[in-house]
Amino acid sequence: MPATNHDPHTWREIAQTVAIGARIQRRKARGKSTKALEKRSEEIRLKAEAREEGRRK
User: Fold this and answer.
1) Please, what is the Cα angle at 35 between 24 and 11, to 5 degrees?
2) Residue 31: left if φ>0, alpha if ψ -120 to 50, beta else—which one?
3) Residues 6+ apart with CB under 8 A from 39
4) Mean pLDDT of the chain
5) Number of alpha carbons in the 13 Å side-chain half-sphere of residue 34
6) Across-strand partners of 7?
7) Per-residue three-class SS string for the chain
8) pLDDT band for position 33 (50/70/90)?
9) What's the rounded Cα separation, in Å, for the pair 53 and 48?
C-alpha cells in the first residue's frame, strides 16, 4: 500500500531510499564511488512505479 495517494512508494521503500541516500552522501564525502547505491535506489523507484501502474489498469 502506498504511503500517500500521490506517491507510489510504500513506507518500507521510502525508508530504504532515505537510508541509501545517507550512505551515498557519506561515500561522496569520502570520495568513493556511489554508482551501485544509486542503481539500487533507481531500482526501488522503478519497481514502485511499475507496481502502482499495474494497479491503475
Assistant:
1) 55
2) left
3) none
4) 91
5) 15
6) 4
7) CCCECCECCCHHHHHHHHHHHHHHHHHHHCCCCCHHHHHHHHHHHHHHHHHHHHHHC
8) very high
9) 9
Q: pTM for this structure?
A: 0.83
C-alpha cell at 32: 568513493
φ, ψ of residue 19 to 5 degrees: the values are -65, -40
Place of cell 500500500: 1
pLDDT at 52 over 90: no
